[in-house]
Design goal:
By secondary structure, the chain is of the alpha/beta class. It is built from ten helices and twelve strands. The strands form two sheets. Strands 1, 2, 3, 4, 5, 8, 9, 10, 11 and 12 form a ten-stranded mixed sheet that branches. It has a two-stranded antiparallel sheet with strand order 6-7. The longest helix has 18 residues.
Length: 304
Amino acid sequence: MVRETRLDPDDFIYPLFVRSGRGVKSEISAMPGNYHFSVDRLVQEVGEAIEDGVRAVILFGIPDHKDAVGTAAYDDGAPVQSAVRALHESYSDLTVVTDVCLCEYTDHGHCGVVRDGEVVNDDTLELLARTAVSQARAGANVIAPSDMMDGRVGAIREALDEAGFESLPILSYAAKYASSFYGPFREAAGSAPQFGDRKAYQMDPANSDEALREVALDLEEGADIVMVKPALSYLDVIRRVKDAFGVPVAAYNVSGEFSMVAAAAANGWIDRERIVLEILTSIKRAGADIILTYHAREAARLLR
């Protein structure tokens, strides 16, 4: 009766990976229980997630072809755009969030246009805006830029407004750290950089004042929800962002955090059910209103 922090399945966004083809459900080795889905199997998976109590998903695309400028990201017939349309045809009350980044779609694995070995910030903005508009046309309910280019929220907001999507909200990966916890995701998305790293545009894990500056900039540019990523090693940042701005805050319980729990549980070292709920409760207690988590289905079942 006096519990201060309460989890609810409505807190969760379920990350999913979609690719072309039919009948595809291929397990991701570094993330047991997570899969690459073709659109038809994705629709089935989401239906089962809804039965568990999950009401929101975020989609990441696995293209058939990658090139230097991530063309497949803004192809209206790409897996993500096709999946958005198919999900809305099947589930009218589902919230579909779409990730906006180029790393899954570029042959070099970086989040933007590369020239002379450097990621070119301003040239990337136009492509990110094109991707957001393409996803909006497909029916995305929320646009979520994760690239960490400077000015991308403003560029996307302007492009969406010009395309007639003035009311479409933006969930910005505002404080995204250059973390070692992303390894399993990069295997799942085939998005590991082919050279260098992402420290030039993602945040230093040692900095939290910088996170507040990044969040402030994104809010000024039109972000409606701001995200801290990863979650567990950055609970203090989640709390600082919530206290400083009082806006809706999301946190991403990322792939490495998931996989460590899965591996430890598989070895019998931890009680998986209890630790999943403890982790998610800690993220919400820190100040997150929304939690992106690969545990979404199992946590929703545990909370029934």
